[in-house]
Amino acid sequence: MSIPMALPALSAQEQEHSERLVERIRAEIDRCQGWISFERFMEMALYEPGLGYYSAGAVKLGAGGDFITAPEISPLFSRCLANQCAQIFEHLAADGASPTRSGSASAGILELGAGSGVMAADILLELAALDRLPEHYDILEVSADLRERQQATLAQRAPAQLSRVRWLDRLPQGFRGVVLANEVLDALPVQRFRIRGEQVYALGVTWQLGRLDGSEVPADAALETAVRGIEAAVGERLPDGYCSEINLRLGPWIAGLGGALREGVALCIDYGLPRRQFYRPERSEGTLLCHFRQRYHDDPLVHVGLQDIGAWVDFTAVAEAAGEAGLELAGFTTQAHFLIGNGLERFLAPYGKHPGEGEDLAARVQLSRQAMVLTLPGEMGERFKAIALAANFSAPLQGFQVRDLSGSL
């Protein structure tokens, strides 16, 4: 995949910031005898303390940032998620938990990487309207500047619910309720590989002619085994020259989630595919994408520390890792079907059936356009998938009743 895209010029301050991170990466390359894996590069580019994309203070989300997530596009996304949370709370309560106070479920919500805080605010507002507020809404956020933005957003949009929100530094233990991870898995650092004849090579980063450059070395045993496992699963050898990504950190990440979740459901929503579709021969350049000021391209070595880097998710690997962590697959579907199953049409119906009541025509048209972006196949509807992982929870989930694609994993 090659995506030419003219990128905006950097300011002097941005250039200096990026150069500082590049120098730190260069020092890591020197320390590692001239080469680091792409996984290590991506980790530093995104999470290096004080300099990485998610660790520094640049505006990342929304129209003024680098990309727009579903909760930023429309509150419809979060309202549907709230409906799914409410259903889970009801079943947890039926299993023996009583509310701790009027209108408050004894289970909680844990959001991993809460972005701007818009999703948290809109979910809390919808749950308040449903009289199904959680006992607490926890946010695990690695970015200090995003924590500040989340606090400001919640104080502005849902001030009455701010006291329920807690910011965590690590996963809690014995959590009961709903875990939400929207566009989190795609930001986990990945290994990149290329097939050369019969051999697997690891793609990495080196320093050449005064700049960062890509380089290949024979894969180590772990990467070699993982790639051969993919070939066994898809039933054929990957062709010569084939390049793609594999997330070797997914297993430990899911294991941590399984260790934290005592009872309830983890919902992960991200762009990705089942393994057989992910590693199709024609997808020979992988899925890596970078985002910078609403532009996307496939060169991770430019604007280092100032652009997002992500790769599509192998949802078969998610399901496999969940099983190894003691979690059960409770559903897998497209974002469109997940939202429809959680009442999207009901949120739109009042404006369509009663024009002029409560919303003007322009507002109704805008809401319909937002719903189209969230659900159409050419937009987010099919590229994004939802997967549910359950711990000691067996009730059917309404978001996966319209169309469950678990059999494709």
Explained architecture:
It is a single chain. This protein is an alpha/beta fold. The chain has helices at 12-31, 38-47, 70-73, 75-94, 118-129, 144-157, 221-234, 250-260, 275-278, 315-324, 335-341, 344-353, 361-375; strands at 36-37, 104-105, 108-112, 133-134, 137-140, 165-168, 175-182, 191-196, 199-208, 211-218, 243-246, 261-273, 289-292, 295-297, 308-310, 313-314, 328-334, 384-391. A hairpin with a 2-residue loop joins strand 13 and strand 14. The longest helix has 20 residues, at 12-31. It is globular, with a radius of gyration of 22 Å. The strands form 4 sheets. Strands 3, 5, 6, 7, 12, 16, 17 and 18 form an 8-stranded mixed beta sheet that branches. Strands 1, 8, 9, 10 and 11 form a 5-stranded antiparallel beta sheet that branches. The chain has a 3-stranded antiparallel beta sheet with strand order 14-13-15. The two termini are 24 Å apart. The chain has a domain at 70-186 and 253-273 and 314-408: Rossmann fold (3-Layer(aba) Sandwich). The model is unreliable at 97-104 and 352-357 (pLDDT under 50). Helix content is 37%, strand content 23%.
Summarize this structure briefly.
This protein has 409 residues and is α/β, with parallel strands linked by helices. The chain has helices at 12-31, 38-47, 70-73, 75-94, 118-129, 144-157, 221-234, 250-260, 275-278, 315-324, 335-341, 344-353, 361-375; strands at residues 36-37, 104-105, 108-112, 133-134, 137-140, 165-168, 175-182, 191-196, 199-208, 211-218, 243-246, 261-273, 289-292, 295-297, 308-310, 313-314, 328-334, 384-391.
